[in-house]
Prior knowledge:
single chain, alpha+beta, 2 domains, two-stranded antiparallel sheet, 3 helices, 15% helix, elongated, binds zinc ion
Amino acid sequence: MKLDLVAxxxxxxxxxxxxxxxxxxxxxxxxxxxxxxxxxxxxxxxxVVVNGNLQFVAxxxxxRCGERFSSDVDVEFTYFFKHGVDARFQEEEVELNxxxxxxxxxxxxxxxxxxxxxxxxxxxxxxxxxxxxDCQGLCHRCGERQSEExxxxxxxxxxxxxxxxxxxxx
Length: 170
Ligand SMILES: [Zn+2]
Ligand SMILES: [Zn+2]
């Protein structure tokens, strides 16, 4: 979904996204309840500010135990877009403020909403996917999930310092 910079009004325009076909198809991630709202406003000549929020529920497999679980993702974002090169950058010394650093310079006078949302989708997906922060993974002996109930195995003491001491004493 492309927005023409020239056509964006000076008064803020709210866009409720209904097309989520840009969401990547991945076998291991299931996305549901996706919602996205953006506010687009023109700020001077050929400069546009986009504020927005992307929410979805992602279902993954735990990196440690393989159990499926879901996680709510909610990301807020702000982009500054400018078309053309800022005349100030032609000068030798330019003091950059925070907004300059966050500004995206466009080659074409249009913004792709779906590209923005795709960026935010990847930022929102957690890098380590654990069903619980302290997930113990699978037992290396029986292959069962080590939950609070635990598996049926006896605690493995063979690697503990006490077990090594016991061997040394023999
Ligand atoms: Zn897990
Ligand atoms: Zn076990």
